[in-house]
Amino acid sequence: MNVRAVAEGDPDLAINRLRRQTDVDGTTVDRFLARHGAPVSEGRFCTFLYRGEADTVRLAQRIIDLPDRLPMHRLPGTDLWYVIVEMPTDSRVEYQIEVGRAGRTECHNDPLNPRLAHSPVGSSSVCSGPDYVVPDWTVPDPEAPPGQLDDLVVHSDTLTRDYPVTLYRPAGCCPTGNYRLLIVHDGGDFLRYAAARTVLDNLIHRRLMAETVVAFLHPKDRLNEYADSAEHAEFVTRELLPLLENDFPLAGDPSTRCLLGSSFGAVASLSMARRYPGTYGSLALLSGSFVSSRPDGAPHGGGPTFDPVVAFVDDYRRRPTRVADRVFVGCGAFEPLIVRQPSMLAAFRSTGMHVRYVESHDGHTWVNWRDRLCDALSWALPPG
Question: CATH 2.60.40.10: does it fit domain 4-128?
Answer without folding.
Answer: yes
